[in-house]
Amino acid sequence: MRLTQWTDYSLRVLMYCAATEERPTPPTISEIAQAHGISRSHLTKIAMTLAAAGWLETTRGRGGGLRLLKPADQIVLGTVVRQTETDFNLVECFDPAVNTCRLDGLCQLKRILKAAMAEYLAVLDGVTLADLVTPGHLPSCEQVIAWVPRA
Fold first, then answer.
1. Per residue in 87-110, pLDDT tens?
2. Which residues are CB-neighbours of 29 under 8 A, at least 6 positions away?
């Protein structure tokens, strides 16, 4: 699965805010846009969406900026990805409305890909924003894989 640019930038904004929580002044959209080489107007839309989802507080004007509304260790990556991604249909046959596959019902690809997507999201559900910005805080890949329940 490939994340959309929207989700990628959403994660970058949240991570930047988490990494700068201890600063006396919050980061601004302009600061984050410049740091990542992203359009300021595009990041403004993303910040408004993240604020509406309850992850960010936005303050306008002098001394304003973006702050996390929840502690970074309470923002789960799986939740963010589920709310910012628009399409989890990896192949056409995932969506009955557009499925024209002649092998549907015979092929096991859909079942395998659904299982892979479930494991992908399960790994993200085991990681918080704090894990991504605290050095040495993220568990090893072996530990993350061990969290995923096996069928």
1. 776 666 666 787 777 767 777 787
2. 40, 43, 44, 47, 65, 66
Q: Which carries the bigger pLDDT value, residue 34 or residue 113? A: 34
Say if residues 12 and 32 touch (Cβ distance below 8 Å).
Answer: yes
Tokens of 78: 């799986």
Q: What is the 3-state secondary structure (H, E, C) of the chain?
A: CCCCHHHHHHHHHHHHHHHCCCCCCCCCHHHHHHHHCCCHHHHHHHHHHHHHCCCEEEECCCCCEEEECCCHHHCEHHHHHHHHCCCCCCCHHHCCCCCCCCCCCCCCHHHHHHHHHHHHHHHHHCCEHHHHHCCCCCCCHHHHHHHCCCC
Q: Which residues of 117-128 are buried (b: 16+ CB within 10 A; e: fewer)?
A: eeebbeebbbbb
- The pTM is what? 0.79
pLDDT digits (tens, 9 = 90+) for 31-74: 999 988 999 999 999 999 999 999 999 988 887 899 999 999 99
Q: What is the pLDDT of residue 93?
A: 65
